[in-house]
Amino acid sequence: MLEKQPQTVLSVEVKDFSRLSHIHWRAPTVMGVGFLLGIVLMGLHHALYQTLSGEPADHALLQLWAIRGGTAIAFLSKLAMAIGTGVAYDQWMWVDLHAKPHEIGSLDSMFAVLGNAFEFLAVGVWVRRPVLAFLAAVTWLLPISAIITPGTLSIQPVIVATNGTLKVPQREYTTNNNLYCGVTTNGDTTMYATMATGLLNPTFSTVLSNSVLPVQSSSSNLTYNLQFFGPAISCDLAGGEAFAWAKKAMLQYENMTDSRVFYFGWAPQPGWGPEVNGSFFASTDVQIGNNRLDFTSQDAARVFIYLNTTGVDESGNRIPGFAGEPEAQMMTCKLYNASYAAHFEVKSTGAQFITASPTFENWMPALATMQGTPAEPLVSRQMNMQAVMEAFAMMVTGPITYSNDVNFPTTNSVYSLGMNQALFPSRPGLTQTEMTMRQARQNEMLFQNITLSMRYSVVSGHIGPDSTTAPANRQVFQSQFVYEPRTLLIAYGISALFALICVLLGVHALLRNGASYTSSFSTIVRVTRDRALSRLIADEGDLQGAEPVPKHIRRAGVRLGRNAKSGSPTYASSWI
């Protein structure tokens, strides 16, 4: 084999590679267009999913084609970028080929790796060519984004809110067909008798649940607000004068009965005043609450509650061995007319959340008689509101006492505290005043819950005979397309970043080579003409080109392109 003169090789190289005239437009165009087309397709994928996001997915065909369309765009974007990075790989491969000799086995891996991932197993080849390995790996890994990005659009049940009006059943205070008390009439005079039996159910149920009773259920989530006028109470520490009367009489009552009073609730009635004594509290009417309405006060109807929780645990049982000084306190709960702003959240699951905020308008007395008939709104409203006050008083009046003889049990005749321990006033760590104020807030909430339950709740399977209209927000579940743009943008962003690095490496390789190359057979043929190669594969079996490559051929070194000018000729060397 004759070696070309080094001077001739050098002069040809200077002539051909000192300019960029051998960089064909196709290589940089394919890299640039492939990358830009991939970016455009990624943006189109995002725009498609953004358009579908939040739209109803109520047709199976639409669901199928939405996912198919996203998958197709993801595939095309990966394909466009992989074409660009593949061309960049070819350009950098020729940077390596020009730089030094290569074993034929290494050339096999370098030329085949973009079509056969098993060539990555030739670890030694790629450790010595990290940039080339990076370009090949990126080209192979770009399809990962096509796996992740179509899954960023899913179909999920989403709560959809619509505004409208709702017809809400209620029990009105001002109509004569909704009387919550018994009355007698004498001409145009109405006399209050007692609360109606129908008011007992919502009252007892409210105490047991310690919450507003459920309103009419709904198949969808509903939110609505109602405003109405109704009764409310305000509870606070009793004035000094009334408290002094109660303390004096209560001490007499404790001495009479050889007991300690833990709790005593009562409504003012004849006998209550400056001259009250222990006999007042020993009265059967006060003990069992026969007189539950305060017809004696001229302003607001009242309920008094006397507390002495000293030496008593949170269940109302005496603390053994307690020898502290007894301490008592008293509260007054007054009846008011109030305007309510009630908020209702009714869930399709059956859960309900009902809250209200009363604004006190004016105090209300309890009237034994009233001019007018129950058909008049003012009369029916007054009778109904004081009936709610009586229902509340029925729950909180009566005594809880325990005998000074430890062998006798505690006596409890108070409905609310006997049925619901959550309403119990005693709590560890609180002073008597703090416990009294805590109980005051509990009583206000209990009265409010009774009022709301009586007015709007389903009681004994029945709803209110009247109704009112309220603006409502209805929430239903709807199948919608839900798009996660962050995941798509991250996946595509990483792909685009690595593809851009590959393209820039390809451009750098073009400038460094001074020419553009491919890995096509014609390119290989043009750079490997040499007699030494013919002698190397002279064997007839080797001429067939069948696998596997013989070891002596695989280990042979080859000089390609500009690298052919250096080194001494051998049977394993070839150059242009």
Number of helices: 19
User: In percent, how helical is the residue content?
Assistant: 40-55%
Residue windows where pLDDT falls under 50 for at least 5 positions: 1-19, 542-547, 567-576
Taking all Cα atoms into account, the compactness measure Rg is: 47 Å
Strand content: 15-25%
Count up the domains: 2
Overall pLDDT: 84
Give the overall shape.
elongated
Task: Give me the count of strands.
Answer: 14
* Biggest sheet features: 9 strands, antiparallel
Distance between the termini: 13 Å
Structural class assignment: alpha+beta
Transmembrane segments: 23-44, 65-89, 109-127, 134-153, 489-511
Keywords: Membrane, Transmembrane, Transmembrane helix
Structural overview:
The protein has two domains: 6-13 and 25-154 and 479-565; 172-464, no CATH class. The longest helix has 40 residues, at 60-99. It is 43% helix and 22% strand. The chain has helices at residues 6-17, 26-52, 60-99, 104-112, 123-127, 130-141, 143-148, 200-209, 240-257, 278-282, 284-288, 377-396, 415-419, 432-456, 485-513, 521-527, 531-536, 540-543, 551-554; strands at 102-103, 153-170, 181-186, 189-195, 221-237, 259-266, 302-307, 329-346, 352-363, 369-371, 398-403, 410-412, 466-483, 557-558.
